[in-house]
Fold this protein.
Amino acid sequence: MKYIDYEKQVQYDTLSKAAIRSRILIETLSEEMRILYVALTRAKEKLIITGIKKDYEKQKEKLLQQIERYQKQDKKINPILVKKYIKYIDWILLVYFYEQTNMGNIAELKTYTREEVLDFCEKIEIDDINILEIMEKQDRDEMGIEKIANLLNQTYQYELSTKIPTKTSVTKIKQGEQEKIEITFPSPKFAQKEESIKLTGAQKGTLLHLCMQKLDEKKNYDLEAIQKLMKDLVKREIITQKELDNMNPIAILKFTQSKIWQGMKQAKEIQKEKPFYITLPAKEVYQEEVPESILVQGIIDLYYINKEDELILVDYKTDFVQHEEELVNKYKKQLVLYKKALEESLDKEVNHIYIYSTFLGKEIEVLK
């Protein structure tokens, strides 16, 4: 890897990286030489090699100067030159000029200018033809015209399949429709003044997710302990002070007082932020009659197996809502996908699905 100085915002190669690059170059050149050798030794009677050079005479003069500077070593071309010239035609020219006195009976070098090459080519006179005029004089073939029109205007039988992606994410699937994605490229954080960085609702939600993920189920939390946890994240440079100022520790404290948290403290197994992939028929996602399947990816916020050996699925939501039904109606389809993926992965039935609303400060059971 490269060495990166985050304070100065610079990076450069380490000695080990430079050594590996040099080794790779040598091995690559050796392999290319073997390929060239095989090509040169397959001809039975005569081998014709062609190559193109821009300003050949100037390059030839420079090549001869290099040959004079770097003498052979143990009757072999100097490795410095071999690495300096890395094209087949250059290697061939190196051999030719090093051994020019002995090449008379072996090889002949010919050079041609672009103009000379064009003179070798057969010249064909092209008449000036008016295609439209010729077509107007032809008899109209109505059946032929109709056939062409049908071909040009035909509708592709599987056009819908070409518009459906082969891969999507759970967050893009909402009520069976694909949400439009707007891609923006904001300035990187290091180029912005920290006080000018404004957090969006989604970013604040991500921060809450992060803190809830860092909670230790073996501990008992009060407000002071939650605030200490958040400050530790700043010290460890996981979040910034600006991000800390935008977070609500009380929302996290309420989660540690929830039924879900009490279940986690006695759980047999707990898994957080688990990515998954599941293949679904496209018609289940888009309500379109197409035979294709779609690879759907997502991340499950939390699942655990409680002391009764029940599998509990939990999804955190930070939406600003007035009623529980809003969250259930909005995210039920996504949670059904999570359930299906989890059951296929663990070969175990999901017994309960909960949405934990950080805004309402309570768990909402979606599936009993």
